């Protein structure tokens, strides 16, 4: 479910996501909100908060999210992602360099700081973002280096297992739905793999 948030400037789209986010949520809530705002503003800011009750995206929602981002790729001025979901924070940080705008990532307990950042002037926001990001990196880098070294040792096995899984479902789709284009089938399979990984992460360690 997607819920609009109040108390933000007119040039800021502010939403909270909870539970399972569906394609219908995008098509009836977010997309009309964004398109209406772009009618009066050349540039927009996005505040996207995923609540603790967030349980994942449907494949259709992820596709709508991709299409919306591509359609207005150069029209975003700043994006704040507020969540405790680790893979979403890491994805936002990993792809931030591809975005033609400032991207800030915040934990849920930093929501007040995120609101201040999304509403601030560019100069103040950049300074605050750099400081908070630098602090977070210093805290995480030692542990992440240990994890990275371990995962590098296991990478070939993980890649092989994942490749076999994708190839298995490619063959199933090709057999059951021969009319579907291979590129589309591959994209849908990968979306579902990411969705399942999200569900596993939300369940926590066994």
Order of helices and strands: EEEHEEHEHEHHH
pLDDT < 50 stretches: 126-141
Question: How many β-strand runs?
Answer: 7
CATH-defined architecture of the largest domain: 2-Layer Sandwich
Tally the helices. Answer: 6
Beta strand %: 15-25%
Largest sheet: 5 strands, mixed
User: Strand order within the widest sheet?
Assistant: 1-2-4-6-7
- Helix amount, in percent? 55-70%
CATH overall fold name of the largest domain: Transcription Regulator spoIIAA
CA distance, first residue to last residue: 27 Å
Radius of gyration: 19 Å
Give an overview of the whole structure.
The chain has 206 residues and is an alpha/beta fold. It folds into 2 domains: 2-133, Transcription Regulator spoIIAA, CATH 3.30.750; 142-203, no CATH class. 61% of the residues lie in helices and 16% in strands. The protein has helices at 23-38, 59-71, 86-95, 111-119, 122-176, 182-203; strands at 2-4, 12-17, 20-21, 44-50, 56-57, 76-82, 102-106. The chain has a 5-stranded mixed β-sheet with strand order 1-2-4-6-7, sandwiched between helices. The protein has a two-stranded parallel sheet with strand order 3-5. Strand 1 (2-4) and strand 2 (12-17) form a beta hairpin. Helix 1 packs parallel to helix 2, helix 4 packs across helix 5 (122-176) and helix 5 (122-176) packs across helix 6 (182-203).
Task: Compile the SSE list and pairings.
Elements: E1 2-4, E2 12-17, E3 20-21, H1 23-38, E4 44-50, E5 56-57, H2 59-71, E6 76-82, H3 86-95, E7 102-106, H4 111-119, H5 122-176, H6 182-203
Parallel strand pairs: 2-4, 3-5, 4-6, 6-7
Antiparallel strand pairs: 1-2
């Amino acid at each position: 479910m997607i819920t609009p948030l109040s108390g933000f400037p007119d040039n800021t789209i502010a939403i909270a996501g909870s539970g399972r986010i569906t394609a219908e949520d995008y098509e009836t809530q977010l997309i009309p909100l964004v398109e209406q705002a772009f009618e009066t503003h050349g540039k927009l800011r996005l505040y996207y908060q995923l609540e603790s009750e967030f349980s994942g995206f449907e494949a259709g929602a992820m596709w709508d999210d991709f299409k919306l981002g591509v359609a207005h790729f150069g029209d975003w001025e700043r994006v704040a992602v507020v969540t405790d979901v680790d893979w979403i924070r890491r994805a936002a940080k990993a792809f931030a360099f591809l975005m033609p705008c400032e991207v800030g990532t915040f934990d849920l307990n930093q929501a007040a700081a995120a609101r201040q950042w999304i509403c601030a002037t560019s100069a103040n926001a950049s300074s605050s973002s750099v400081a908070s990001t630098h602090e977070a990196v210093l805290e995480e880098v030692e542990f992440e280096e240990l994890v990275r070294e371990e995962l590098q040792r296991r990478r070939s096995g993980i890649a092989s297992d994942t490749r076999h899984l994708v190839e298995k479902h490619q063959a199933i789709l090709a057999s059951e739905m021969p009319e579907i284009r291979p590129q589309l089938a591959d994209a849908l399979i990968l979306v579902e793999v990411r969705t399942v990984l999200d569900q596993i992460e939300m369940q926590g360690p066994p």
